[in-house]
Design a protein that fits this description.
This protein is mainly α and 184 residues long. The chain is 87% helix and 0% strand. α4 (85-111) runs antiparallel to α5 (116-140).
Length: 184
Amino acid sequence: MEKKGYSIFVSSLFLIAIVVCFISDVVVHNQFTWSILVVVSLAFSWGVIIPSIKLGIKGISRSLIVLTILLLPYLYILGYLLQVEKLFGVGTCISLVSLWYLWSVYFLFKTLKKRQYLVLGITCFLGIPLSLFIHIILVRFAIENNLTSWDYLSFFIMFLLSIIFIGKDYFEYKKLRTKRKYDL
């Protein structure tokens, strides 16, 4: 019952935001202009968030499924509303890489439930090629130039975090195996 209450509360907030946007847009412009963009984005966000709120941890897979299904239509509508031709092409490429990353992380957490530090380490490490792929896509579409020192710093931090998390997992797992060995 508590999860149902949260989903009703969140849905109410989304609905209030939609109504306020519509009213504001009509009062200022005497028609719907920017509010359509907000409503489409809120509807997309609501569709992705609600399964996780209703089902808790079990809803994450459903949220990912909804995200996977609705992301490309959302990008198309967004590009159409904003009248930005590159948005759908760039967004599709980045979305496919990002969805691969999100699903990979999800399956890692599902398969390695007891080794969360290892999963965090792999997640941080996979963030490096994800960032590189996104950067390559942005360069290809002439939206961004070469890598900057900030990019290299973020790669270094992700690599360092992956080493720390994998190291922590290694020592915890080693300690656990040693403990089991002596308990027998």
